[in-house]
Design brief:
Blueprint (H helix, E strand, L loop, with lengths): L5 H8 L5 H13 L7 E2 L4 E3 L5 E3 L2 E4 L5 E10 L3 H24 L10 E9 L2 H4 L20 H14 L5 E7 L5 E3 L6 H15 L5
Parallel strand pairs: 5-6, 6-7
Antiparallel strand pairs: 1-4, 2-3, 4-5, 7-8
Helix pairs in contact: 3-5
């Protein structure tokens, strides 16, 4: 997937970088029958277990106060060494906090919600070259040997799904030529949207 639409690069590096994705997800939800009143993009706090609450980027909540979906969106263009670990810890921590709160009854009388994580990362020399591993006492896992930051984000997204921390995760790259694309088919934006839409189409009656 690639595009010459310069607005995508500008959106990624701007202060409102993920607004386009939020709008797309809203449109997908509405198309499968979710009323706009159930789609929350402001004051999106959910209770946690290890902390009081967490502000998600998009929620879908029924009139009867059932949580159908929660989505977190992140981006990183540049400063990979400073921020990759932070993004990783945020992704894992948010999921563990939410699912533990769910287990402990913070969202009563409902089935498990759909939880998604979408990441936009820069594709450039800094993100594509192998990253040094620090192994003073023990070896790192083999998948991290010679892996770049873009590779590491790919590994992260795949493992977030494998370990069922998220129902779906997506990784989109962008570059200075105003192009964008999927890093891998299994964590593509289209698969993310398909999973989201399929889940919502099966529970849309909860909002009516």
């Amino acid at each position: 997937m690639a595009s010459g639409d310069t607005s995508n690069r500008g959106a990624v590096i701007g202060g409102k970088q993920m607004d386009g994705f939020i709008q797309l997800l809203k449109e997908v939800a509405i198309e499968v029958g979710i009323p706009s009143d159930c789609i929350i993009t402001d004051n999106n706090y959910l209770p946690g277990y290890f902390r009081s609450s967490k502000d998600w980027d998009l929620l879908i909540i029924t009139p009867g106060r059932k949580l159908l979906a929660a989505i977190e969106l992140k981006s990183q263009v540049g400063s990979y060494g400073n921020n990759f670990n932070n993004r990783t810890e945020e992704a894992i921590g948010s999921a563990v906090d939410l699912w533990t709160a769910f287990r402990e009854g913070q969202f009563p009388n409902q089935q498990a919600p759909w939880v998604g994580w979408l990441m936009v990362a820069g594709r450039d020399n800094a993100s594509e070259r192998p990253v040094r591993n620090y192994e003073p006492y023990f070896k790192v896992r083999k998948e991290f040997v010679e892996a770049s930051y873009l590779d590491r984000y790919k590994i992260l997204c795949q493992k977030l799904i494998l370990e069922r921390h998220y129902s779906s995760a997506a990784l989109v790259w962008t570059n200075e030529q105003h192009e964008f694309g999927d890093v891998s088919d299994d964590i593509s934006i289209s698969r993310f949207i398909q999973s989201f839409a399929s889940y919502l189409s099966g529970v849309s009656d909860e909002c009516n």
